Amino acid sequence: MRKILLVVLTFFVFGCQSQIGSLDAVWEKDNRELFNKIGVREYSGLTKEQAVNAMVIAFQRLDIIIENSDFKTGTLTGSATAPKPLTYEEFESAKAVEDSRARQYVPFLIWKLTGFDSKLNVIFLDIPNGVQISLRAKLNYRGNTTDFIPISNFPPKATEIAIRKTWNEFEKVEFVQKATLKKK
Question: Running DSSP on this structure, what letter comes out for residue 172?
């Protein structure tokens, strides 16, 4: 009886890990499409340095800790305790949208972000008369991964909310900067 229970338990644990891997792959594909569709914007009349500075302020307003920023190369990385940049309420609304689809892959899914960090990367490219900005994000598990395979992608609805929220904050800062610079 013990051997049968052990075999069933082993199958259940490894089966769940495979299911989580499948869900993570689906979310990664969906997120890649979102980042390519709404995570890239071009701004005319803005330098790479101005854009990096505005995004640094936007990150700070969203409680994202800046890990690295370089306006010359046009990179910015930041992290926050998940679900940031989403609020708890925003994450709950994303869960409500994604739950039924997620359970198709992982029937016993437990929505828990404890121990996860949101990792955000931004690339700034000079273009004629402006700058192109690309956003990307992943989840990073801080805990021990020997017992399970953690998910590494946000649910797509959470990604969509985070992208729109980041752009909104960036554009507020950029608008203020432009108004301030014009006054001088």
Answer: H
Tokens standing for residue 120: 């955000």
Geometric angle at alpha carbon 25, from 39 and 82, rounded to 5°:
60
> What is the per-residue pLDDT across 68-120, written as a single tens digit (0 to 9) for each?
999 899 999 999 999 999 999 999 999 999 999 999 999 988 888 788 999 99
For CA atoms 173, 92, 149, 154, the dihedral sign is: negative
Q: Helices (H), strands (E): how many in the chain?
A: 4, 5
Taking a C-beta distance cutoff of 8 angstroms, is the pair 147, 87 a contact? no
Integer Rg of the chain from CA: 20
Which of the four pLDDT bands, split at 50, 70 and 90, describes residue 4? very low
Domains along the sequence of the chain with CATH:
2-183 (3.30.530.50)
Q: What is the secondary structure of 2-35 as a DSSP string?
A: HHHHHHHHHHHHHHHHHHHHHHHHHHHHHHHHHH
Q: Are residues 38 and 164 in contact, defined by beta-carbon separation less than 8 angstroms?
A: yes
Q: What is the pTM of this model?
A: 0.86
Backbone conformation region of residue 117, classed left if phi is above 0, alpha if psi is from -120 to 50, else beta: beta
Cis peptide upstream of residue 83 (ω within 30 degrees of 0): yes
